[in-house]
Design brief:
Layout (H helix, E strand, L loop, with lengths): L58 H19 L7 H17 L7 H34 L11
Helix pairs in contact: 1-2, 1-3, 2-3
Length: 153
């Protein structure tokens, strides 16, 4: 019985390399005894460096986001919380302005921007609602069929 060739293209097989062993123990052959208990750790600085801590979040950035969410979500429910829209807009703008004045002192620019945008949207809805109410009452007051001597109002 004949054996098939080890490589059908005729190239010699690559040389076998010894197994390197588990990470952290370079040069230790497979099957060797583990290092003794209390063996020294790798030197300091080995691996990835420690992450740098983020600066604290600006207190008004989170507040602007919460007030903007309450203004917009509450505005769709009953309309009255839309009055908080300008507050969220101002809080977000002032937090972003302070973060730009002192770069690196605070984080939370995204929260302040989101609160500011939600405040702008709530303020626009508030203005549209006020204009709609004024137009409604103006039409009601000027329509003679609704208000007049025959209705008794």
């Amino acid at each position: 019985m004949t054996q098939p060739p080890s490589d059908p293209w005729g190239a010699p097989p690559p040389p076998q390399q010894p197994h390197p062993g588990p990470p952290g123990q370079p040069g230790q052959p497979y099957g060797a005894p583990p290092p003794p208990y209390g063996a020294p750790y790798p030197p300091v600085g080995y691996g990835y460096p420690a992450p740098t801590p983020l600066p604290p979040k600006h207190p008004r950035s989170t507040s602007a986001l919460v007030v903007g969410l309450v203004a917009l979500a509450g505005g769709f429910v009953c309309g009255l919380p839309l009055l908080a829209g300008p507050v969220a807009w101002i809080m977000g703008a002032s937090a972003r302005r302070e973060m730009r004045r002192r770069p690196g002192a605070y984080s939370g620019d995204g929260e302040a921007l989101a609160g500011m945008v939600l405040g702008i949207v709530a303020t626009v809805l508030l203005v549209v609602g006020v204009i709609g109410l004024v137009l409604f009452f103006a039409v009601v007051a000027t329509t003679p069929e609704i208000v007049g001597p025959t209705t008794g109002v």
